[in-house]
Amino acid sequence: MQSRWRMLKAMLLLTCLSTSTAGALSAAASAQTHAPAWQQIGDAIPASLTGVAGDPQRGRAIVSNRRLGLCLLCHSGPFAEAPFQGDLAPSLAGAGARWSEGQLRLRMVDASKANPDTIMPAYFQTAGLTQVGGAWREKTILSAQQIEDVVALLVSLQ
Ligand code: HEC
Question: What does the angle CA 25 – CA 132 – CA 141 come to, to the nearest 5 degrees?
Fold first, then answer.
């Protein structure tokens, strides 16, 4: 009798456990339709966000565009077409020699994963941001392919 009761309890517990993990799993799955998904390994995101090679020319246009990338508000770099450049951040010259492609991708997606105190915006993040203007809520600053384009440009800055 005792052992039967114990078995019943164990079965109840198992049922509870499996329904709650199923609930958590489906919550995670539905969250992904809003939040962009990537996998961080160490201080890098090794895999492309899109599987489509980035275009360094398009990346260059994004970086030197004052409305889209805003990179040169803080950074300087070998971009003769952009006359006013920032000095709040390291020059982007040689970034591809200092960092791997995956390390650059992580810094583009969410620089706070490399430096929690960074002032650099998270260009491909919707989770965990504070003070986001209405128009930007649930949206990333750059698209996945734009991130890949900028990463391709940065890799080329040797
Ligand atoms: C508001 C300022 C700001 C903006 C805008 C900004 N960054 Fe940064 N970025 C920084 C700072 C500061 C660092 C130095 C590391 C840190 O504090 O996270 C950095 C680091 C980096 C690094 C690593 C540099 C190195 O060699 O150490 C890269 C690459 C980079 N940024 C690229 C970009 C690109 C590309 C853009 C635009 C799409 C951009 N950043 C926009 C502030 C900014």
Answer: 80
